[in-house]
Input
Amino acid sequence: MNRSITLFLLGALAVATQAMGAQATLRAADSIRVAGKEYLRLSDWAKANDSELRWVKPEETLQLTNRRARVLLNVDSREAEINGVAVWLLFPTVYREARLYLARVDLQSTLQPILSPPKNRSGAGIKSVCLDPGHGGKDPGNRVGANQEKKYTLLLAQELRDQLKRAGLKASLTRTADTFVELPTRPELAKRRGADLFVSLHFNAAPTSASTVRGAEVYCLTPAGAPSTNAQGEGAGAGWFAGNRFNEKNMFLAYQVQKSLTKNLAVEDRGVHRARFAVLRDAAMPAVLIEGGFMSHPVEGRKIFEAAYRREMARAIVGGLLAYKRQVEQGG
Output
């Protein structure tokens, strides 16, 4: 990670901590290094952020609480839960000498954006959303029988566009028919249109375990130098990309959408993930990729193929986008 990015992240953490009324500072002596990554002692971070810690299961599951959030962390694991929503950490927690440590990058880019949401600059509102129906044309995406992913992502995008417009937002699509659009072109279209958010829509499939695997998950871009929770098809290394300018907002947007999907659709919560998908890497605005469910599951798949369920899903996504909009515009 280069010096300018490091300074940017440290600055972002300092601003967020001040906003939460923190009085303590984190000293170098409170940190350790594990596999070359800096980890901070969670008890010190909690004190600096007016939070309390207690064991739910001794030396196994720890709970961090403050007036805004309840966070569950598992020892030696990347799995976490924030206000009931599953969120995957970039690096596993570390338990050393009866103390729990979290990677500094997770405190800055995973927990902090959710516990202390980022704000837009004054006057910069969320007015326009670019929707990206995954696949299309010669690229069908996942197939289950005669059903092709490209068809249902477009139908969902069209329903979502209509609902966003009724909510007072502008909405456009990267494709409006069964046509093939190159991956780099999709975020470029969003940039040309001056979109404030980019939302890529997809559906999953798990042919080898179709009867058991189901649920929704939302992806945002992996910070530089960190591993993705899904590296499939990334092929671009772990460096810095244009979309990393929005790391904090990417995470907060993904969290709000996942929270709304799991709350309003009652689907299995597969969590907020990180990935370096091309459409996320090149985005010139906060961006997420939504996997709305598993076409391969006998029950969930049937729902995805029904217009009424896609309408409910679109309503849940709109709810997440509006929740994000309200938070980032506060004080702007």
Remarks:
- The chain is about 35% helix and 25% strand.
- The chain has two domains: 3-115, 128-329.
- Residues 1-26 have pLDDT under 50 and may be disordered.
